[in-house]
Amino acid sequence: MKKWTFIVSGAVFFFLAALDQFTKWLIERNIDHQEGFVVIENFFAIVHKRNYGGGWGILQGQQTFLVIVTFVALALFLYLFRKASFRTKFFYSAGLLLLISGSVGNLIDRLFRTDAAGETYVVDFLDFNIFGYPFPAFNVADICITVGVALFIIDLLFFEKKRGEEAHG
């Protein structure tokens, strides 16, 4: 990996992880737990929710397992990121960078945010109601992870094969 790629990637990572933690701090500091306010009627609200599980609240109370899975995933993402090149593998590189940033953002919560009962949680605050369906609340780290997965899949489906063909023929 080139030096500038490492420097820019580090800056983007720190910005996204800091943005995630700052927004969660703002929510915890300014909105009581289980409270919030409507931004767009019947569509979008800012809320203060605590997620004691993974995405969509799965694996409730399994924070130790989720921490271990996150460390394993981060090791894999960092291993794959060795081949990052925003010039020749943009979707691959950007996807991995977002996956790393989002994973670290939620990992920080799982390691350091605890309630009065000593249970760890992740702060979620973006609450959408889409066509009458109350979508689970999420945060900046979740956005990074979701977009990162999408970019990584786009790379695998549309660009990896092309790069392989160019390398072999």
Molecular structure report:
The protein is an alpha+beta fold and 169 residues long. The protein has one domain. It contains 4 helices and 4 strands; from the N terminus they run αββααββα. The chain has helices at 3-30, 63-81, 90-112, 140-168; strands spanning 36-40, 44-51, 122-130, 133-134. The chain has a 4-stranded antiparallel sheet. Strand 1 (36-40) and strand 2 form a beta hairpin. Helix 1 runs parallel beside helix 3 (90-112), helix 2 (63-81) packs antiparallel against helix 3 and helix 3 runs antiparallel to helix 4 (140-168). The chain is globular and about 55 Å long.
Topology (elements, then pairings):
Blueprint: H1 3-30, E1 36-40, E2 44-51, H2 63-81, H3 90-112, E3 122-130, E4 133-134, H4 140-168
Helix pairs in contact: 1-3, 2-3, 3-4
Radius of gyration: 18 Å
Low-confidence segments, ≥5 residues, pLDDT <50?
none
Number of strands: 4
SSE string, helices as H and strands as E: HEEHHEEH
- From the spread of the alpha carbons, the general shape counts as globular
Mean pLDDT: 93
Structural class: alpha+beta
**Given the structure, what is the number of helices?**
4
Helix content: 55-70%
Number of domains: 1
β-strand amount: 5-15%
Spatial order of strands in the largest sheet? 1-2-3-4
Distance between the termini: 24 Å
Characterize the largest beta sheet: strand count, sense, and whether it forms a barrel: 4 strands, antiparallel
